[in-house]
Amino acid sequence: MSQLIVVSFEEEATAAEALEALRSVQHAGAAGIADAAVVQKDPDGKAHVKGTLDGTALGGAAIGGALGILLFVFFPILGVAIGAIGGALIGHAVSDRIDKDFVRDVTEKLDAGHSALFVLVKDAEPDAVMSALRPIQGGTIIQTTLDPELEEQVREAVE
């Protein structure tokens, strides 16, 4: 099961740094990132949202492509359309995604020059996640689905 962690930072680039730190934990095999988004508000207050494409969505696209090729043999134009739609539906049905409306709500409340990290972490070793986040300073937990003890550890790691 994935755990949502949303942290805001006082610097525009810090959320992206925190995501890179978590990706290093993922590459080491100590955690998985199901989905992530970084929101940066420039000094003028314009928001920039950078989402990531998880492996599930890519898998759905691959399945859809294979389905499209198979159907293309029998029904050329219809096969392409059904393959694309099928891939999108499969990817959406099995993916663990961050709600876009929630990202938009948090983005509206974010101060100019600040950033926020939204991440769905799965199969994580808490110590590895904490050690990755500890060097990142100036963070405030906005929301998590972590148990209270682990949430407090994350809070201490990023503050």
The residue ranges in which pLDDT falls below 50 over 5 or more consecutive positions are 53-58, 89-95
Task: Report the sheet with the most strands, covering strand number, pairing sense and barrel closure.
Answer: 5 strands, antiparallel
Alpha-beta classification: alpha+beta
- N-C termini distance: 26 Å
Written as H for each helix and E for each strand, in order along the chain, the element string is EHEEHHHEHEH
Overall number of strands? 5
CATH topology of the largest domain: Alpha-Beta Plaits
Q: Return the domain count.
A: 2
Global shape: globular
Helical amount? 40-55%
Portion of residues in beta strands equals 15-25%
- Mind telling me the CATH superfamily name of the largest domain? ACT domain
Rounded average pLDDT: 78
Can you offer a commentary on this structure?
The protein has 159 residues and is α+β, with helices and mostly antiparallel strands. Helix content is 52%, strand content 23%. It has 2 domains: 2-53 and 99-158, 2-Layer Sandwich (Alpha-Beta Plaits), CATH 3.30.70.260; 56-94, no CATH class. It contains 6 helices and 5 strands; from the N terminus they run βαββαααβαβα. It has a 5-stranded antiparallel sheet with strand order 3-2-4-1-5, with helices on both faces. The longest helix is centred in the middle third of the chain and has 20 residues, at 55-74.
